[in-house]
Design brief:
Elements lengths: L1 H25 L3 E5 L12 E5 L6 E4 L7 E11 L3 E11 L3 E4 L3 E16 L18 E5 L2 E2 L3 H9 L6 E7 L2 E7 L2 E2 L5 E2 L2 E17 L4 E4 L15 E8 L1 E6 L7 E6 L5 E9 L2 E6 L13 E2 L9 E8 L5 E11 L10 E5 L2 H7 L3 E3 L1 E3 L3 E2 L1
Parallel strand pairs: 1-5, 18-25
Antiparallel strand pairs: 2-4, 3-4, 4-5, 6-14, 6-21, 7-8, 7-14, 7-16, 8-9, 8-10, 10-11, 12-13, 14-15, 14-26, 14-27, 15-20, 16-19, 17-18, 19-20, 22-23, 23-24
């Protein structure tokens, strides 16, 4: 009987430890808030926050807006006010106003190097073996010469005449150096056995325009490479006009898709960064977006969001932007992991008829090159 009691106590103790570990792990190391928004981490009993007085509050440029400043400070998560568990960086963005858009736009993204998206044998050999190179790595140099696109990589490899090359590549922000010997093909070309890509293109939705800085945000999510399924690390990009060619209606369990073209598109801005929260950059030609400063509104924080009926702006007919009804069914006030604040349901009959509900834009990588 005593053994059963001890086992029960041990299992209960382990479950409690698991709950605390899970809760602590779910709290991110860095949090982004609007000025006036409360820091609410949804912690459980025994966990508390204390401002880190050894960390000086500083102003720094925001990744979203390089002109407005954000305040950075640190708070410490403590267990029963005795043990420091982790430090959390809190970034506070000043209040700002934006013009909601919803336009369909084209995107061209260029990588910081050449992305490895696959591997293949060359004449029965695998020149990439034992080099350490993997899918998702970014090749940035060949023989100490910078590589910015696939054509530069092709030229460097073909001019090697089979001699071993020094290759620098990046993985998760860390640089690595290795060597690789190209293999001569039957067509008298030299190959590394790597499928590579130097950019991505597609169409998406621009979310808002910030008049005070000429900044924009688009998509609400990052662009992922279709082969590596990793966020594409870009060096630059273009925001251009697009034309919608067709809409594939969504069905239960399968999101729909808006297809379009960016051929002959006019440049309306530059892309600066591709993040998990969306695409950000600068507008250089706002005449193509139909921006009306009378629609400028203040950005709300999560505490101001309410469940119930709401409206979204969306361009589904090449430049014709319309309002559609939705319903906010749930609010995630404690979600500081991916900044998703709400769950919505499409209720507008016209939007449901056009799209079947939620649709995705056709954002994808450009064609891969075998090297």
């Amino acid at each position: 009987m005593r053994k059963i009691f001890l086992k029960t106590c041990l299992i209960l103790f382990l479950l409690i430890v698991l709950v605390y570990v899970t809760n602590i792990s779910s709290i991110p190391n860095s949090i982004l808030l609007f000025k006036g928004e409360e820091l609410n981490l949804g912690t459980i009993f025994g966990l508390s926050l204390e401002e880190n007085r050894n960390y000086e509050t500083v102003e720094a440029s925001s990744i979203i807006d390089n002109e407005n400043k954000i305040e950075k400070k640190k708070v410490t998560l403590r267990l029963f006010d005795l043990i420091n568990v982790k430090d959390i960086e809190v970034n506070t963005i000043p209040e700002t106003t934006v013009v909601p858009l919803g336009n369909s736009v084209g995107l061209k993204l260029y990588t910081s190097g050449v992305l490895v998206v696959g591997m293949t044998e060359i004449e029965g050999k695998k020149p990439y073996e034992n080099t350490g190179i993997e899918e998702g790595d970014m090749i940035v140099e060949i023989n100490q010469k910078e590589v910015t696109c696939t054509s530069e990589l092709l030229n460097s490899v073909n001019s090697s005449n089979g001699k071993t090359l020094d290759i620098k590549y990046v993985r998760d922000g860390e640089e690595y150096v290795s060597t690789i010997a190209p293999i001569k093909t039957k067509d008298n070309e030299y190959k590394l056995g790597l499928w590579v890509r130097d950019g991505a293109a597609g169409i998406g939705t621009i979310s808002y325009y910030e008049p005070s800085t000429n900044k924009f945000a688009a998509l609400g999510h990052g662009i992922i490479d279709i082969d590596t399924e990793e966020l594409i690390n870009i060096s630059s990009g273009e925001l251009i006009t697009s034309k919608i060619s067709s809409i594939v209606k969504g069905e239960k369990g399968v999101p729909g898709e808006i297809k379009g073209t960016i051929v002959n598109g006019e440049t309306i801005g530059s892309v600066g960064i591709n993040t998990n929260f969306g695409i950000y950059g600068d507008i250089t030609n706002n005449s193509k977006l139909g921006i009306d400063r009378n629609n400028e509104i203040e950005v709300a924080n999560r505490e101001e969001i309410q469940e119930g009926k709401a409206k979204i702006l969306l361009d589904l007919e090449n430049g014709v932007r319309e309002e559609y009804e939705i319903e906010i069914t749930k609010i995630y006030r404690n979600n500081n992991v991916n900044n998703k604040s709400m769950l919505i349901k499409v209720t507008d009959p016209k939007l449901l008829e056009l799209t079947g509900g939620i649709v995705q834009r056709n954002e994808r990588g450009t064609n891969s090159t075998k090297q």
